[in-house]
Structure formats: C-alpha cells, structure tokens
Design brief:
3-stranded antiparallel sheet, 4-stranded antiparallel sheet, globular, mainly beta, 92 residues
Length: 92
C-alpha cells in the first residue's frame, strides 16, 4: 500500500492522486485513508455512505452529493449499501 495521507499536510494543499473506488461493505479503501472524495451521479442528487477515519467502531454517515461534487472528509471506507452515486473517486 502506498501511503498518500499525511497528518502533516496542510488541509488546503492540493490533492496529489485520485483513484476510482468500487464501494464495498466489507473492505476499507485499498490505498488507505483519503483526504476527500469526488462524486458523480445520475440526476441532481445522490448519496455516498462513508466511514470517517475517526469512526473506529465501523459506524458510517450518509452524505448527500451533487454531480461533480468534492467533499473534504478523511474517509477510510465507501460503502456499497446506501451509495447511489454512480462514480466515486478517492482523493489523496
């Protein structure tokens, strides 16, 4: 696994990599915790269910997203169940 996430990087720094994600209810992101997600969907509103880096108990949050929407969360899992966005990229 390549380590893209650094707690020393300033929040406003640019992303250095983006990978398309296949949402999974059982597997965390293969490249580790990302610094943001980029989402596309069908129609005006979609949802992405994620586990944030601080949720070690496996809890999740469902985030509403619009087409070409970037969310700045430190995400470790993108769930298949509850995700309606058709394309999700993990941003590192």
């Amino acid at each position: 696994m390549v380590e893209f996430f650094s707690t020393d990087a300033p929040r406003e720094s640019a992303y250095v990599a983006a990978f398309e994600v296949t949402p999974s209810d059982t597997t965390d992101l293969p490249d580790g915790v990302c610094r943001g997600i980029l989402c596309d969907g069908t129609g005006q509103h979609s949802f992405v269910r994620v586990t944030l880096v601080g949720n070690d108990d496996g809890t999740y949050v469902t985030i509403p997203v619009n087409n070409h929407d970037t969310k700045h969360f430190h995400v470790k899992r993108i769930w298949a169940t509850g995700t309606t966005a058709t394309t999700v990229f993990a941003l590192y």
